[in-house]
UniProtKB/TrEMBL annotation:
Domain Xylulose 5-phosphate/Fructose 6-phosphate phosphoketolase N-terminal, residue spans: 38-396
Annotated protein name in UniProt: Probable phosphoketolase
Entry keywords, A to Z: Lyase, Thiamine pyrophosphate
Taxonomic source organism: Jatrophihabitans cynanchi
Enzyme Commission code(s) on record: 4.1.2.-
Amino acid sequence: MSSTGADTAADFVTGGTGETRAPTPYFLGDVAGPLGRDELRRLDAWWRAANYLAVGQIYLKDNPLLREPLLAEHIKPRLLGHFGTVPGLNLVWVHANRQIRARGLNAVFVAGPGHGGPGPNACAWLEGTYSELYSHIPQDAEGMREFFTQFSFPGGVPSHCAPETPGSFHEGGELGYSLLHAYGAALDNPDLTVFCVVGDGEAETGPLATSWHANKFLNPARDGAVLPILALNQYKIANPTILARIPEPELLELMRGYGYDPHMVSGDDPAAVHQAMAATVDSCLDQIAAAQQAARTGGGARRPAWPMIVLRTPKGWTCPPVVDGQQVEGTYRAHQVPLPSARTNGTHLRVLEQWLRSYRPEELFDDAGRPVAELLDAVPTGERRMSANPVANGGALLRDLRLPDWRDYGVDVPSPGATMHEATRVLGSWLRDVTDLNRTNFLTFAPDELASNRLQDILEVTGRNWQAEIGEFDDRLDPTGRVIEVLSEHMCQGLLEGYLLTGRHGLFTCYEAFIHIVDAMFNQHAKWLEASSQVAWRRPVASLNYLLSSHVWRQDHNGFTHQDPGFLDVVLNKRPAVVRIYLPPDANTLLSTYDHCLRSRQYVNVVVAGKQPQQDWLSVDEAARHCTRGAGIWDWAGHNDETGTVPDVVLGCAGDIPTLETLAAASILRERLPDLRIRVVNVVDLMRLLPEDEHPHGLPDREFDTLFTRESPVIFAFHGYPWLIHRLTYRRTNHSSIHVRGYKEMGTTTTPFDMVMLNDLDRYHLVIDVIDRVATLGPRAAGLRQEMVDARLEARTWTREHGEDIPEVANWAWPS
């Protein structure tokens, strides 16, 4: 870093592997800019204090204020953390605070660079929020010692921003989502400003590269603002970043191409960078205010070129410039721990002490270890502190949705199978009115699939959010629309997460096969929910609700690439406390299920439902009871058990097409084997199959045994991969008698029934399974078994000859 004054003898030492040099303490020179000398000194003091606290978190477990010479026993045995990006984060934070105080901003902070946790942690401690939320970490010397010790320490806090981090609603464990979370927070938050720092390594990820387009969905009349700051510190873990190595004009043109007005701040002299940053943030916020004012007074219908900042500073700015003869500051070697052997290497230990003292902590903390008055006076008050803003603890702001009674939208079902509906279209009529009743806190997200998934009724009361050009032949695009459709599952997921985590509600509808694109994003969000549930001051947020349609069994027209129900397997890897999976078999059960999901908190709800015309099985009242049970016997479909005898076979099913095929198989068995005692069990809530000690919805063993019996064979038709049912039921008494049919990775472009036949889920194969597994049938059912084999062959031959399903299947209905 640039500094004034010559190196002194204490600035470097030479070890066995080469020179190791400590940073030289700097003193601010006179640099022209908007900051007066006193204000510049106060901003820099805050920045030095935050940097000092960040270094302390990575290295120290004792002697936090260096009141005695630094010894090896003061150093943590395992040095974990990342310093490289922290000075840039702290710089943005202190300049955001300046604006909050000057303009009365309502602002939050998103730290995109991975493992930048020491920065926001330090700022929260300086602002006093940390001590308010964690009373065992007061704002004094002892609190500082505890604050340092807990970082990346067993039983402590992570190295990245996490639920434990005051003021954070962005999980820093995986890169790529910071800008989406920032824009999601700004939607429907008209007075909010989000300072979002985007790491230049993070900017190489697919989700972040697409995220720049989120500005096309920000309405300056009704939404808040995002100020992206691209932290161009030039290196990732071991390589330079692409954006740091392209010519600056090319970078700025790239940002202009995304629709931004880029501003450049660069340098390594603290005084110059402070002055440039102050002037640039002033200019950017003036632009934002002007755009919002124009839009809110009717004078600006066009999408503005939103400002953004490119901040180019050295990697590991202010750290030791040379370690063991190798350049560290300004290189990839500053990414994590610049002095990796400070506990065991005497040279590293001495340079670490000089590094910490270069921030001049004696000027920043008083004798008790509290920040000096000059630092405390620079802190915004109350909830204006970014570390204390309730927007970042969205559950504190969450308000219940106004939900119309779903029963009023149910379809009439005079008897099972007597009517047919597209389940998701029926749901869409209810969601239309949910949207209309909740115009400031409910959004629907879809990757260009709203109408394809039959939810187009929502567009009767709103349009598709669109801030770009609208053409003559476009369909219901509207700058005030409550639906965001963009052909990026990453964008839909990230925007919804940001919206939910800041206190609102929404849903994400997607083709089932392509929800896998956001597997990692789902993982991170589920982990956030798991961790935040353990943080006492975090309030529950609205659940993340998926509606997966165009599913595996009705993607026969699109083919093999569109056929994958495996997201359910991914979801079940998460802790039971936060995940739910629902497979409603018809329209009324889908309505009941989704009403429950939109009322829930702190979960990820996955609902899979078909969009094609399908027979209705349950009335509104029956659907309500069945969904409340989660799993239950459909007496009308099986043997009328008046004698209390145990069924010869249980036909289990979960999912709309498996339910259809199960019922068709049951009708064949009832007609051809009238003495066979059949029980049909439908499962809506997949978690009911788990034992009660593994999931809150799990059935006790006694209830499971009552439902599925302890000894009867169970033929289970499942929507997804068969082994998932075995995974859920492996501890049950009769697990060895459970035989599952499901998707076996057999798919192509074919007819709907041929698709289920390819995977042996069809009605004829289910009948064969019953004959093969019910010992009492034996040879007396051999004729029926052969008929079923022949029926499969006939159905396949018909399909190959006619290009459609055989009429007896296509026109089948439950016998009245």
